Amino acid sequence: MTSYNDHSGSGASATILPFAEPQRAARDTRPLRLITCGSVDDGKSTLIGRLLWDTKAVKEDQAATLKRDSGAQNDLGLPDFALLLDGLQAEREQGITIDVAYRYFSTDRRSFIVADTPGHEQYTRNMATGASTADLAVLLTDARTGILEQTRRHATIAALMGIRQFVLAVNKIDLVGYDKAIFEKIAHDFKELAATLGVRQITAIPMSALKGENVVLSGHSAMPWYEGPTLIETLELATTRSAQTGGFRLPVQRVSRPGESFRGYQGTVAGGAVRPGDSVVVLPSGMVANVKQIVTFDLVRNAAVAGDAITLVLDRQVDVSRGDMIVSIDAQPLTGHHFDAQIVALQAGGIEPGKRYWLKSGSRRQRVSVAPLSQLELSSGKWKTHEDTLAMNAIGKVLLSFDETAIFDIYEQNRSTGAFILIDPDTLNTVAGGMITAKRSQADAAHRDGQRVVLSLPADLADQLMSTEIFAARRDEADVRRVSAARAADLMKDLEA
Amino acid sequence: MPPDAATRTDKPMQSHTEFDPQSKDKAAKPPLDPHLKALENEAIHIFREVAAEFERPVMLYSIGKDSSVLLHLARKAFYPGKIPFPLLHIDTGWKFPEMIAFRDEMAEAFGLNLVVHTNPRGASEGISPFTHGSSYHTDVMKTEALRQALDLGQYDAAFGGARRDEEASRAKERIYSFRTPDHKWDPRNQRPELWNIYNGMVRRGESVRAFPLSNWTEVDIWRYIQAENIPLPPLYFAKPRKFVERDGMLMWAEDPRFEALPGEQVQEGMLRFRTLGCWPLTGGIRSTASTLDEVIAELEIATVSERQGRAIDRDQAGSMEKKKREGYF
C-alpha cells in the first residue's frame, strides 16, 4: 500500500521506521482551546484538515482509511478532509457537521484543542457549547464574499460567550488573485464589527487552506505583501484565559473524611489563589475560618491557584457541604436571590417564563425560575424586548429568581463562577447555558434615608460579627468591603458631606 | 521495566507549622509541566464530580495504559481517602495472561475493590474469536458482558478511559455520556456540555459513562506515565515473543489455544504491544523499545495510529460508532 501522506513512512506494516522528525518538546504552556466558526462553503473542514495534516496529527492508517473512503482526491493529491472530520455516520451520509467535535494537534511549542462546530444558524447552540471553553475564536470568511451576516452572528456569539481573541481567516485568497486590497477591505470591515462587540485583539490573515498557505506553512511566495503571522504562529502566541483574577474561589465538590482525624474539602480552584493561613468565608453560611493545609496526593502545598484540583483543610470545625463555596474574606462573590443573566436556549422546547428549572453552577444545584426580558437579534446585534418563551437557539437576557441564596461572580470577571446551565426537571436534559451579568438589587425603591447602615469597624471585630449565626443568615443582604483605616475615615467624611 | 511503583507507599502528610512564602513546594519528583497538570486537574475534577453526584459509580478497568493512568488519577482525586467505588474488569477469557497477573498485583498493592465479570452464557458456549469471529466475540464477551455487569451492580455511572483522539465517533462524545436503561448511546441526541459544568441528573435505570481522559492524546498518556512513574503491564515493552503474521497483523502465538494456519510460520522476535486487549485481536509491533524512554521515543516518531493493530475498528466502516450505540465503551 502506498501512502499519499507526506510522511515518509512504512505503509501498512506496523513496523515503525525511525526517521528524523524533531522530538516534541515538553509543553511549557497550557493547551490553547479554540473554536472554529464558519461553514462548509467557507472551507472550514479544509482549514481544520489542513491544520491536522500539516502538524502531522493524521497518522498513516487513518490516512489510508480516508483514501479508501474518499476514492477520488482533489488535484493537489489531498484527501477529502471532511471525511476525516465528520465522525458520525449520519454526517458522512448527509455531508454535514451536526455536532461539536474536538480535535487535537500540537507543534513543538504548544498543543491545541479545537472545538469544531457547525456553521448554520440552526446550530447556534452547538457553537455556544464549543465557545464556552474556548480561549480564542477563528472566524472563517470567503475572500470572494467578505463579511456576511453569518460572520456577524458567529462573532456575536463568540464575544457573548466571553472570547476576547479573534482570528479572522480570510480564506480562498487565491481565488481573488491574492489581491491585497480585497484582504485589507475585509480586515477593516471586520475590525469595525469586532469593535462594536468590545473585542480588540484581532488578527486578520489572508490564506488558502486548500493550498496550505499561511495556515501552518508560510504563504509568503504567493503573497509577498503580507508580513503578518501564519495561523499557527498566532495560535502559538495566544493567551489562555485560565488566569482568573480576583478573589479565591473553591466550589466544594465533596467532603473527604477518611478517618476521624481528617476533614478536607475537595474541589477545583475557580479563581484567585490560596495559601495556608489565609482567612476564608464559607458561603452561603458566612462562617469564617483560616486555611490550615492544602493537601494533594504528591505533597502538602504552600499555595494553590486557579485550575488546581485540591483538598483544603480549615483550622476549625465549620459546617461545609457539597455546593458550598469557600472564598477569600476580602474579595467575596455576589450572593442573593435575584440575578440578571444572558442565556442560550439549547433544546426544542425553549425556555419558558415562570417555569422552575434546576440551575447548576460549579458544584451547586438549586431551583430557579426564569423570566425572559429581551432577545438578541443576531442579524443586527440588537436586543429586542421579548418576555415569552425563548425558542431553541435564541439568546436572551433573563432575570433569575432563586428560593435559596445563590452565589455568583459576574461572568466577565470569572468565567467559572459566573457560568451556569439550566436543567429541565421533566426531561433532565440540559436546556440552556447562561452567564451572570449582574446582581439585581432587591429593592430598587429603597432610597429612603435610614434603610441602610454603613458601619466602619476594626477587621477582627467585623470577622467576629460576621461569624455569628444571625449575621450569616442574612449575609446576602450585607455589603462588605475591606479598606485601610485612613480610607474608611475618608469614606465616612464623604457620607457626612 | 518492572512495575516497581506498585510497592510505593503514599507519603505521610507533613503538617504545616508555619507559613513561609519563600519556601518552594517540596516534591519527590519534578512538578508536572503545565500541559499535563491541566489535563490532570481536569480529570480529577471529573472523578470527584461523578463520585459526589451518583449513587453507585464504578470504574471500568481494562488493565491497559489508559486504565493505568485512570487508576492513578482516581487515587490522586480521593487522596487521602481511598477510591470510593469498585473497579470492574470484563474478562473475555482471551486476555494475555500477563494482563491478568498485573491486574491482581495492582488490586493487591492498592487495596482495590476489584469486580471481575465474564459473560456466563458466552463462557458456557465456548465463544472464541477464532471460531465465532472477532465481531461476534466482541459483541458477546465484551459488550453483552459489560451490560450484564453494569445491570448486576446497578451502577448509575461508569468511568472509562476513552480519549477523543482515538477514533472519529469518539471525537463527538461528551465527558458525561448519557445512556438509556438498555445502555444505548444516541450520538445525535447528546446532552450539550458547556464549560466544565456537568449534568449528572438521571432517572432510575439510566446511567452515564464518564470519561476523565477525554482531552488526552496518546502522547499525553505516555508522557504522564513517565512523569508519574505509573506501573504498566510488561506487554508494553519489547522482549522476545513468539508470533505469526496473519492478515497483516502480528499475532501472539504462545497461548495453548493458538493454532497456526496452514502455511503459517511461528516466528520469534522482539515484539511489544501499543494497546492491550484479547490476544487474538491485538496485533503487536516489531520493536526493540524495552524501556519507557525508548517506547516514548518510538512513539514520537510513529506514523501509524495506535488503533491500527485493533481488528475491531477495521471490520466495517463506522464500526466503532455501531458498537458504542450498542453499549460498548
Q: Main attributes?
A:
heterodimer; A: alpha+beta; Elongation Factor Tu (Ef-tu), domain 3; 4 domains; 6-stranded mixed beta sheet; 23 strands; globular; disordered N terminus; B: 329 residues; Rossmann fold; 2 domains; 4-stranded antiparallel beta sheet; nucleotidyltransferase (chain A); GTP-binding (chain A); EC 2.7.7.4 (chain A)
Q: Secondary-structure map with pairings?
A:
The complex is a heterodimer of chains A (497) and B (329).
Chain A: E1 32-37, H1 44-54, H2 60-70, H3 81-85, H4 89-94, E2 101-106, E3 111-116, H5 124-132, E4 136-142, H6 149-160, E5 165-171, H7 180-196, E6 201-206, H8 231-237, E7 249-251, E8 254-259, E9 262-268, E10 273-274, E11 279-283, E12 287-295, E13 300-301, E14 304-305, E15 309-314, E16 325-328, E17 334-345, E18 356-361, E19 364-377, E20 382-385, E21 395-408, E22 419-423, E23 430-439, H9 459-466, H10 469-473, H11 485-496
Parallel strand pairs in A: 1-3, 1-4, 4-5, 5-6
Antiparallel strand pairs in A: 2-3, 7-16, 8-9, 9-15, 10-14, 11-12, 11-16, 12-13, 12-15, 17-21, 17-23, 18-19, 18-22, 19-20, 19-21, 22-23
Chain B: H1 34-53, E1 57-60, H2 65-78, E2 87-90, H3 97-110, E3 114-117, H4 120-125, H5 129-132, H6 134-153, E4 157-159, E5 176-179, E6 207-210, H7 218-228, E7 239-246, E8 249-252, E9 267-272, E10 285-286, H8 292-300, H9 311-314, H10 319-325
Parallel strand pairs in B: 1-2, 1-4, 2-3, 4-6
Antiparallel strand pairs in B: 5-6, 7-8, 7-9, 9-10
Helix pairs in contact in B: 1-2, 2-7, 7-8
Protein name (chain A): Sulfate adenylyltransferase subunit 1
Catalytic activity (chain A): sulfate + ATP + H(+) = adenosine 5'-phosphosulfate + diphosphate
Keywords (chain A): ATP-binding, GTP-binding, Nucleotide-binding, Nucleotidyltransferase, Transferase
